[in-house]
């Protein structure tokens, strides 16, 4: 089942809505809506979306359009689904027709970047693509070791820096060239995610992007920002900064298995108008799933 194992904590937060609506009657509307508002806020839907949803429910209830708890619940689910479909419907990877397609994975350290890249390699390979990994996090010595482990685990080739302190853009250039010469379908590029020198990180990412574009026209095809789902709404400033500087084409939201703040999925899509392409719902190799709005809404509102 899709998203099994994921979103259970968020669902627990939102389960109170079912109880409230089971005994709802018109005279009780304001109290019930206050509590629904609270449940949405606690799950990190954020004030903007929460107020929009609750006020539209209130209007429809008092206008007599919603006449039962079930109808209110369905309207609530539909509002969330509408946000995701309007602003983040394009969840499929856009890989273009030129080979190789290049996917850059960016994000701050600890968010789940390397793990997500490994899981994505596994998924794309099992769909039949020839995958080359590129260890573009040259800043952290352990990062390319970690990626080597994933290369072994997934049976993918990897290009790593030959000498210490190599430039990230040089490693990615080498990898994408190899990908082109040797007919790979997709080059998956890891990048650095150091937190404390953000400015030069952003410059480095721009340099990587340019270096890749020089080798394959139209590449990188995707720049996916990995965000730690346990940080909830706190991920928004980070998402904005990366998008302003590098231009993000999609999100990977990780650790949603352990996060009670799954409403941030809706918030980040609404705020940035960029789709969530994958969600991480565990540490296993299979635990990166393509994001599907409807399945998500059904998973969090049980
Ligand atoms: P990076 O520094 O961004 O490359 O982060 P890592 O890929 O090393 O991941 C940091 C930690 O988060 C590791 O212990 C991962 O196993 C864990 N992790 C990554 N994604 C998920 C996920 O979807 N669910 C859970 N529970 N843990 C995850």
Automatic annotation (TrEMBL):
GO terms for biological process: SRP-dependent cotranslational protein targeting to membrane. It is found in: Membrane. It comes from the Eukaryota. GO terms for molecular function: GTP binding; GTPase activity; signal recognition particle binding. It is a peripheral membrane protein. This is SRP54-type proteins GTP-binding domain-containing protein. Residues 275-288 form the SRP54-type proteins GTP-binding domain. Belongs to the GTP-binding SRP family. One of its GO terms (cellular component) is cytoplasm. Keywords: GTP-binding, Membrane, Nucleotide-binding, Receptor.
